[in-house]
Write a structure and sequence with these properties.
Helix content: 25-40%
Structural class: alpha+beta
Oligomer: single chain
Distance between the termini: 37 Å
Strand content: 25-35%
Low-confidence stretches: none
Shape: globular
Number of helices: 3
Number of strands: 5
Radius of gyration: 11 Å
Largest sheet: 5 strands, mixed
Order of helices and strands: EHEHHEEE
Mean pLDDT: 94
């Protein structure tokens, strides 16, 4: 299972839990699984979070594959202009 580490921005959705394991083979499946567990979190991730998988930050991570031993970090998106 992929190991997910959420930043403090996500803790309101997770009841304070910052780390959890998710059985998913893509980021899309991971987001759907997290939405099922923590209602509202999936939408929040899509709108506000960047995703780092095994140390690499993905710009468009939706279809990115996850391995059973992947480490996924949910980090706030950085705005710019």
């Amino acid at each position: 299972m992929a190991h997910v580490v959420a930043c403090s921005d996500c803790l309101d959705f997770t009841g304070g839990t910052a780390e959890f394991d998710v059985a998913a083979d893509t980021v899309r499946r991971m987001i759907l699984e997290l939405e099922d567990r923590f209602p509202g979190l999936g939408d929040f991730i899509e709108r506000k979070m960047a995703i780092a998988i095994d140390g690499e930050i993905y710009r468009n991570a939706y279809g990115a594959p996850l391995k059973p031993d992947s480490e996924v970090y949910l980090i706030p998106k950085i705005g710019g202009g």
